[in-house]
Design goal:
The chain has 351 residues and is α/β, with parallel strands linked by helices. The protein has helices at residues 3-16, 20-27, 35-48, 54-59, 82-95, 112-123, 137-149, 174-185, 208-223, 240-253, 266-276, 290-297, 309-326; strands spanning 65-72, 100-107, 129-132, 153-157, 168-171, 194-201, 229-236, 256-261, 282-286, 303-306, 333-335, 339-341. The strands form two sheets. Strands 2-1-3-4-5-11 form a six-stranded parallel sheet, sandwiched between helices. Strands 7-6-8-9-10-12 form a six-stranded mixed sheet, sandwiched between helices.
């Protein structure tokens, strides 16, 4: 759905200081609107010479579509996922009254069985479309195959899975994200410095998308004049102390001037540097959330790469909305901005 198609309804709602749903009720002569409010809206419609288009007629349909949200539940490690949920709810508040029933299926991001249980429950509810955070690769593949069998449309946010074809993917161009970090990092180091790149992961994490970031990062340095030594590691941990053990051993033989954390756990590295009193290693990470921001404010993280997770959720909802209600072709790849957040601008960053 192109925003311009609803711009007239939005403008009427703005001028009348009411919701889009209220304008829609007046446009289709439904009950539930106070007479004074109705008269005000009709006056604005006349003033704007607004004529409901084909889309508005479609929105008058009585059909209710069921959309599911399959996403990690709130916990200390999953704080990031609060933002896309907020984005989804914002979209629902704008468009949900036009025929959408939204249902949440929260899973434990450290428990594959939890994910499977939620997918089974979702599949039993005759859902029309679903927004998915593909944390578990094999299980998401199986779920996607079942969705295809049942003609359930699914949208991926945050990361992709090779050879799986969602209705739309909404997230970063991962290779380009890595290249952006590479470009940024060349200003933080000297041409032959050592660099450490880490995926700090738990056993169940999807790491394929993180490897794409590393590929882009390494490509940038291969294409440029800098000839840095780059070490890349997947570090599986169940407890933060395990990362400290890795770093202690690594620094016995290596002298990195910069560490790039490809996922949202830069705070673990920052905490290590702070605890050990190390101030000569630059740190770049991903993810706009409280733990990272605290270390960014204190100067232990130099830059955070962010991709507007709230907007991801909003766009994911609209992708389903376009397909089912607006009956329009959905853009397959919706790449998000690759934003650079610093201690100086984090307060003004709109998630």
């Amino acid at each position: 759905m192109k925003v311009s198609e609803l711009s007239g309804v939005k403008e009427i709602a703005r001028r009348a200081n009411v919701s889009i749903a209220t304008v829609d009720r007046v446009l289709h002569n439904r009950t539930g609107v106070a007479q004074k409010t109705k008269e005000k809206i009709l006056s604005i419609i006349k003033e704007m010479d607004y004529k409901p288009n084909i889309l508005a007629k479609r929105l008058a349909s009585k059909r209710v579509y069921k959309f599911g949200i399959l996403i990690p539940k709130e916990c200390s490690e999953a704080e990031y996922w609060n933002a896309p949920v907020t984005g989804i709810e914002e979209a629902l508040s704008e468009f949900g009254d036009f025929g959408v029933d939204l249902r949440y299926y929260f899973f434990d991001r450290d428990d594959r069985l939890s994910f499977i249980e939620q997918t089974e429950e979702l599949l039993n509810k005759h859902i029309d479309g679903v927004i998915v955070a593909p944390i578990f690769i094999n299980e998401t593949r199986e779920f996607a195959a079942k969705c295809v069998e049942r003609r359930i449309q699914f949208v991926f946010i945050e990361s992709q899975i090779p050879k799986v074809h969602p209705l739309s993917y909404i997230g970063q161009d991962l290779v380009q994200s890595g290249r952006v970090v590479g470009h940024l990092c060349q200003y933080l180091i000297n041409p032959k410095d050592e660099i450490l790149v880490v995926n700090v992961v738990r056993e169940n994490d999807n790491t394929e998308h993180l490897m794409e970031k590393i590929r882009g990062f390494e490509q940038y340095f291969l294409d440029g004049k800098y000839h840095c030594s780059i070490d890349s590691y997947n570090i599986e941990i169940t407890d933060p102390s395990e990362f400290a053990v890795f770093m202690d051993d690594y620094l016995k033989t290596k002298n990195p001037k910069l560490i790039y954390v490809t996922n949202s756990r830069a705070y673990l590295v920052a905490n290590y540097l702070k605890t050990r009193g190390i101030v000569d290693i630059k740190l770049v990470g991903n993810g706009y959330h409280t733990r990272n921001i605290e270390f960014l404010k204190d100067g232990f993280i130099d830059f955070l790469i962010c991709q507007k997770p709230l907007e991801q959720g909003y766009k994911a909802f609209l992708a389903l909305y376009e397909f089912f209600i607006a009956k329009r072709k959905v853009v397959k790849l919706q790449y998000m901005p690759i934003d650079i957040v610093t201690r100086e601008n984090y307060r003004y960053y709109e998630n």
